[in-house]
Fold:
Amino acid sequence: MKYGLLTYTGQHTYNVGDYVQSLAARQYLPKVDLLMNREKLGEYKGDPIKLIANGWWTHNIHHWVPSEAIDPLFVSFHMNNTAAPFMLSEKGIAYLKKHAPIGCRDKFTAQILNEKGIEAYFTGCLTLTLDNYKVDDSLRGDDIYIVDPFYNYPNSSDITANLKNAARGVVSGDIFNLGKINKTLKKIIDPELLKSANYVTQVLPEGKQTDEEKFAYAEDCLKKYAKAKLVITSRIHAALPCLAMGTPVIFMNAFNSFVDTCRFDGILELFNRVDVADDGSWTTNFDLKGKINKDTMVTNYGLHTKLAEPLKEKCRAFIASEKNAEK
Structure:
């Protein structure tokens, strides 16, 4: 049997978090015979191949559903509300019923599938099983990483990407709020820490790296987080792996659109969080006096383990079923 691993195509940028999710799947595969673009699975015409089908589905609705030659394990599956009306066609529903039960990354996805008569259940994210990157605490340093904080706020790189974005930014008023990220960070994080922290982005230009280089960058991020004293982020695929690796993490939550919040149903409660309201006021669900600084210590709740262990068992059983069939 052949084994596939998901890769991804962006327009102007790509999300490193997608590759982090593929790294989570890769650890269960005995080998990787083929890198398979998530947006082109309907075109596959090769030999039968097994695929752990986790992550966000999908941006190219015209290639949904995947080829019949693909034997998928749907775990940690997210169907965004923007794609659901197209994916849950008669054909799409029949396909998911055929491969049910569908393990869903969030409770929203499980709910909309169940409403269509598709057996589905909440699994959480496969990145919660990335404890294979965990290091001994003796190797943990003093580095604090700030990873794409409040990336949903207006930012210059998005608005200046092309004329259409610039025009949209003027009409929406986003172009006048380009300082919102820094302004909000200064409210919550001590100036000394803002100056001394290590900054990482998980969104990079598309077309400048091969898939192998993208996987290498994603691994480099995980190795940094594994040794960190603290990670502060608005990226769930930085925060969730930190839970798996035992790295203290604070999730900066300022998401208010349903496109975003539907992704987090069942996940947000796993984190120590800073929740920022639309008016800029903020609260925490952990004890914090003053601002976050270099001495701020948080303890992860450990709630992720109840999700991680069943996910591991599910993926191992998926691979073992083929090995047993070959005997």
User: Anything to note?
Assistant: The two ends are 12 Å apart (CA to CA). Residues 129-304 form one domain. The first helix runs from residue 16 to 26.
